[in-house]
Description:
mainly beta, 40% strand, 4 helices, elongated
Amino acid sequence: MATLWIILMVGLAVSVTVAASVYSLRGNQQRQVTTHSVTSAQAAAWRGVEVLRRYLLGVDPATMALWGQSSGGLPLPATVTGLADIGIPDGNARITALSGTGNQYQVSATITALSGSGSTTTSATVEVLYDITPGSQGGTNTPVCASIPAAPMVFNGDLNITGGSLGVVNPAGFENIAVAGDITLSSASQATFSGCAKGNVTLSGGGILSGGHVHSQGTIHINQMANPSNTTLWGRDVTIGSGVSGGNYAAVKAGAFTANVYNGATLIGTTELGGKLIASTVTGALPWSVGTVSPLGTGRIVITLASGDVFLLDMASVSIDATTGIVTGAAAAQRIAGDGTSPLDDQLSFRSTRIAGGTIHLATLTIDQLWGHYLTISGWGGRYTTILANGDLDIVTGTIGTLVGGGDITATQAGLYWSFPSVSTGNVAGQLKYGTARQAVPNIGAAMPGLRTQQTGTSPGLPGIPFCDTRVDAIDVTAYRGSANYIFEWIDNAPHLTIRNVRSASGASIDGVYNLATQDVRRLPASGAQFLTCNWNQAGNAAAHCFRDKTATSAWTITGLTHLPRGVFWFDNALKIDGTELRDSDGNRDLLSALITKGYVTLTQSGHDKLIAPNFSTPALLCDGDFYPGNLCDKTGTSSQFTAWTDTAGASHRGLPIGNVALVTESGAQLSGWEIHGNVILGSTLATAAQTTVIHGSLTVGTNAPGSSTTVQQGGAQVIVPQNGDNHYNPGICETPPTTPGAAAMATVRWSRYR
């Protein structure tokens, strides 16, 4: 019994010892876990201190100023809040105070990190004070690439106007309408325009603006047209039918010399240009066509080199020796085609080989200057202040002020000494003739007093052929994606919205990516201001979610739009806007947006207000609403302004070029009676409907479809050119010159402590 008792007691003692050891080990393990959690949380918090420091390096002074205006501090944007990207899924960071202005700030913040789970969860909070010095851009601002359209209306192909109207108001020195193909106006058209075409111009309806012009690198043919006033016609050839009577013309001009281009004695290319032949160099009979040209000091000529390189030379920018015809300064010409292997020599001369065009046919008109090679006037009467005929002049009757002719003058309906035109001062190189038989007049003084014939060396030369500048850059809207505030894309089999550079009225960023099929963006944040709603925002209507029924191939369709944020919108497909009734808090009912799409754009003709590009609004409307585009707004001052930028010439402007566009698409568009404030750029065609679309800005059609045809059958378009020159710029492509390096931003920790 004693032995058993001893064994029992020893076993009991061993059990107690083992239990005590287990309890002690478990307690130590818990303490170690807790200690490890505390250490892990502290380490995570300190990692957060460094991450926040790096974030503050990139914060701009405007955002700093907004933080400073908040009495309670502001949370960081979603990309930093939570610090999930650095392994702290349950942590947070918060700006608690900010002081300082300009180039020096102090930012107070708290960073909290959690570690562990359950009963062993621990946290560590660090208070930290940063010294912040924002970076500078250096001695030279990086310029923004931008371009101005060649005209308020540019069509990169044929323009056919068979009905409706087309016109430009306040061209302010612009070309007005520039067409890369032919212009055809039929009798049903009410269009009244001024502009140029690379192809032929045929007018049998509509009219030309008073004081305006029609320039053509081809033939101008007019048969029926409203009476013009102080109009200029200038082309390769010009024909004005007998159906046009009345009105008056400032000038009617046609023709050029086709010339070889020389550098010294070396033939380098060809061109067509205006000017006069130097008498001592002329070969051949009257009228003169072969010889060295003394060029006009106006206009632009196209020079094509043997290598295929093509240059555009502004004759007003060069020096011209009138005696020899030698041009100096041509090396500054602009290359418009070619691989760039052959430069244009600085000193050039031009040797004419034949006449290009120069034929003018008309009936009875009033013209200040009539200038061409072969002139035919088939009507009776008419008044011509100056007639310049490089070759022959055939005329019925009329009153001529000054006549210079390089060939013969024939009174086609005259008899001997009757039915001749009258001339105040006239000199011609050839003879005076009359009748269909073209017989020589024996007594010039009896037939046309004031005319002198067979004047040696008499020749007025030719005006040249106008250059119609219709150059446009093909549109790739992918290049504009980085400037967009709202990007709509089909991603992972669902419509998504990416928000960039957008802040709420308090200055907090709302940037992020939203799945429109599952997430609610009618208000942002969920309890915030109205953001994006459709279908007239009917109560309980799930369709009030915009684009929720979007499919992979369907257009982005807005029906009954009631709320839309302001800024630049980018769509990866076609876009249709069908009915809007905006209900912004400030009472504005217009779409204050830039719409950029890869696909076709349809703006239906009913149920809408205006479409206004951001920069065509006011800084207050764009920047002081519930949400604003931070890249387009400058809020550093006492009142909002458009963002400033510098062009490649060093000139400063307000309103980034991307904010000047109201509509840009790689495809075409149907614009049905909208009033658009902003520039419109269409990659292919323009379709018009019953109502006229009014554009305050510019219209460019066919950038991605050269040679395409635009037909206006009804409705039409009117462009009103804005008087603010900064609004003329569109996003463009340029080479950015090097800039002086600026000072790097600095962010350092002044002090820190655990809380």
